[in-house]
Amino acid sequence: MTGQALASLFALAATAALLVLVVGRRLARARGPWDLRDALLALVLLPWTSTAVGGALLVVRTGDLQGAVPTLGETVLASAAGGLCAALFAAVRAGRGGGLRALGLRGARPGAWLLAIALAPAFLGLSAAWNLLLDGLGHRVAPQRILEEVLAAPDSPVAMATVAYGVLLAPVVEELVFRGFLLPPLARRLGPAAAVGITSLLFGLMHLSDPAAVPPLVAFGLALGLLRLRSASLGPPVLLHLLNNAAAFGLALAG
Questions:
Q1: What number of helices (H) and strands (E) belong to the chain?
Q2: What DSSP assignment string belongs to 184-217?
Q3: For residues 27 and 88, is the Cβ–Cβ distance under 8 A?
Q4: Which residues of the chain are modeled with pLDDT < 50?
């Protein structure tokens, strides 16, 4: 293992440890509804934990971070670690500040569930139309690397775990962080419209590794945020997110 790799790994570990200490101190003192600082801390935990885990996995496998490319399994594991860390912080902090129902963990009226189901094909169509527009403008949209690797060996355990993560876990974690934990304090501070707009933009930028997908994902985030406000529940947004991801993977595997 090179000195550079050790230094990079140490820096990532130190950052993660510092964040854990900060989170622990805040949780020890926190009482009442969470605020915008708590929500922003969850957003910091997500990418930094993913980076720390991803860097550690690369160093273990290759002994160096310089020029190393993560495998599909490493990418999924790092993403899952970051999302679960942020979601766990959100759940613990919300539990100390008014109960999990404040996150939107409650039931919803039948109309909200039906609306979520009805919106799923609409956003698949929007995504397809966006890709056609880019193709027409001469900007061919390349398949995401994760999808390419899944399609290369769809029956492998790693590919099946990737699909399970993308369809089942990612929608729950992302909705809990963005629409459950970040949206309420933003709405209290700036109003519902601004809160939905900001969370949608941040949600789109979180997927900046695939720049062409950011605009339709921002629009998707708008629908998820409005559905969260309309239903006062995370259930319908999670369902819409799950259906969208399941259809995207399904069409890719079928096509």
A1: 11, 0
A2: HHHHHHH-HHHHHHHHHHHHHHTTTTSGGGHHHH
A3: no
A4: 1-4
Residues in the chain: 255
Its pTM surpasses 0.85: yes
Tens digit of each residue's pLDDT (9 = 90 or more) over 75-92: 899 999 999 999 999 998
Neighbours of 157 (CB within 10 A): 9
What the block records as the tokens of 54 is 């991803």
Helices 36-62, 72-96: axis angle to 10 degrees equals 150
Tokens linked to 205 = 């930028």
Q: With b meaning 16 or more CB within 10 Å and e meaning fewer, what string describes 191-224?
A: eeeebbbbbbebbbebbeeeeebbebbbbbbbbb
Q: Are 81 and 53 a contacting pair, CB within 8 Å?
A: yes
Helix (H, G, I), strand (E, B) or coil at 32: coil
Cα dihedral angle (184, 189, 191, 192), rounded to 10 degrees? -10
Please state, in angstroms and rounded to a whole number, the distance separating the CA atoms of residues 178 and 195: 10
Record the tokens describing residue 135, joined without a space.
């193709």
CA dist 214 and 117 (Å) reads 22
The CA distance from 247 to 255, in Å, is: 12
